[in-house]
Every structure is written in structure tokens, then in C-alpha cells.
Amino acid sequence: MPPPAGEEIAPGLHYVEAQFAYAASATLDVPAIDEAPIERNRLLCFDTETTGLAGGVGTRAFMIGVAAWADDVLTVRQLYLTTIAGERAMLETFANWLRPETILVSYNGKSYDAPLLKGRLRLNHVAHRLAELPHIDWLHPTRRVYKGHLPNCKLATIEREVLRIVREDDLPGSEAPAAWLAFLRGQSSTNLGRVLEHNRQDVITLMRLGDHFTQL
Questions:
Q1: Which of 18, 59, 95, 101 could be bridged to 52 by S-S, CB 3.0 to 4.6 A?
Q2: Nearest residue to 190 (alpha-carbon basis) of 205, 175, 203, 204
């Protein structure tokens, strides 16, 4: 089956880009993380889809999504593997997106996404800035503000109950590995396309969370 979207930028690696525009201030002022106002265009929201949710040496990312502002437009860039052989190219591309001024933004990424990517970057001998860049993990201020007020602090719950974002036909993250493996085995690419949509919304939500916390 053909890949669900994007263009092949290296053997086994596809790239997808989408742009969104909405009214947004140039800076974020988030008392919950106790930092000075942050320039929005320094933020790089990132999220991975992986071959397993438990982590560990055998787990790798098969998709990386990022969202960043430039010229009043939010651009979402996504990389995904169509063969295992594309992993190094994917990691090199992601590493090139990390600028010296970048502030990383994630949801539980300090505990899961960042360590996983650091491990894969190391195994593939790819130089990177991931360990040295400042990193805002929205899970922690979310827990401080909403723990005890919501059933849980999962990103899907925060989207629905706080940001009022309703996803249609969303594929749960737990089903992402099976969707990718099915595609590799030559089965339908439909669910892998749904993984792309899920990942895209995740990184957009990370940026919208900054707006929400600024308004509290």
C-alpha cells in the first residue's frame, strides 16, 4: 500500500507539513512554570509515536511531529518511517530542527519522548542539542492546576475538559504501533493516516496549552 501522506525525503522516510493560523500573542507568560515571559517563536512542541508504550532499548520512534510559530503561522512538520532503514535520516532531520534558541515543549516528554529520542540518537551516532535545550513539560503545571478537579490529567482529558477540543475519528495512541506495523506488512495505510492526524493534533494542543496557561 502507498504511504498515507507526504513526500519521501530519504529512503524509508516521509515528510508531511501543514500550516494553521489563529490569533496569538508574541509571548507567553505562564505563572505555573515560574518563568519570565517566553517568546512564542522559540517554542518547538514535539511528540513521538513509538513501536511500544513501555519504552526500553528495543523501542523506537516511527513518527516525530513538531509544531512551531513563524510569521504568524503555526507550522506542523511530521516525519514518519516507511521502512526501518529510514530511522537515521529521520533522527538527523529532527536534530537539524533544534536551534540554539529552541525551547522544547512536550507532555510527559521529559520522562518518555526525550529519553527515548536521546537513546536512538546515540545508537545512530547522530549529533544533537536535545540534552542541552530548555524543556517545558506541560504535564507538571497541568497536575498542579487540575489534579483533583478532573478524573485524570491525560492530554485527551485536558483537551476535552479544559481546551474544549473534540477529536473526530481519533485513533488512540495505544493503537498507533499496530497501525504502523500493519502498514509495513502491506496492509491498508488508512490507520497510519489516522496516526498522523492524532500526532498532528497532539502538537497543536501543546501550543494551545501555552495560550491557556497564559490566560489563567
A1: 59
A2: 175
